[in-house]
Amino acid sequence: MSYRKWAYIAMLAVTVSSLGGEKAWANEAASSQTVSSELNTRRHFNKLKRSSENIYKVTMRSGVVFRLQTALGYVSTIDLPEKALKVFVGDQELFKVEVYEKQVLIKPITDEADAQSNLVIVTNSGRLAFDVSVGPPSTADFVLDFRLPQDDSMLVRNAFEEKVEQKAKELEGEYRKKEEKLEDKAEKMADQKLKEEISSAVKSVPLKASNVEDGIQVNLLSLSQVGGKAYLRFSILNYSTNPYRVLKALIGAISEERRFLKKRETGFVEFPADLTLAEAIEPDSYVYGLLTFDFRVLGKKEKAVFRLLEDGGGRQIEIKDFKWFE
Question: The pTM is what?
Answer without folding.
Answer: 0.41
